[in-house]
Amino acid sequence: MANPVRRRLLELLRDGAQTAGSLAAQFELSRPAVSEHLQILRRADLVREEVRGRERHYHLTAEPLAVVSDWLHPFERYWRDRMRTLAQIMEEENDDRDHPR
Prior knowledge:
101 residues; alpha+beta; Arc Repressor Mutant, subunit A; three-stranded antiparallel sheet; HTH_ArsR_DNA-bd_dom; WH_DNA-bd_sf
């Protein structure tokens, strides 16, 4: 997930299955490099591979992402609260500049 190529592959698969070739065409990487990223995602159970004749079709497997989302949820609240506090401080500073005492 930390790798931007893998994140982009997951984004591309959100809209439905795609062949390895069509996925590779979205990158300025060699097909073997993109295939290596797909294999890493497959081993992590984030995508599944379906062989149809000579083509490999990749599908997003979203269930493991739901586990990550559940884990991240408390952190979202933390950052939302921090951003709200920062916005209040910035607003107060702007008010002080606009209306000096």
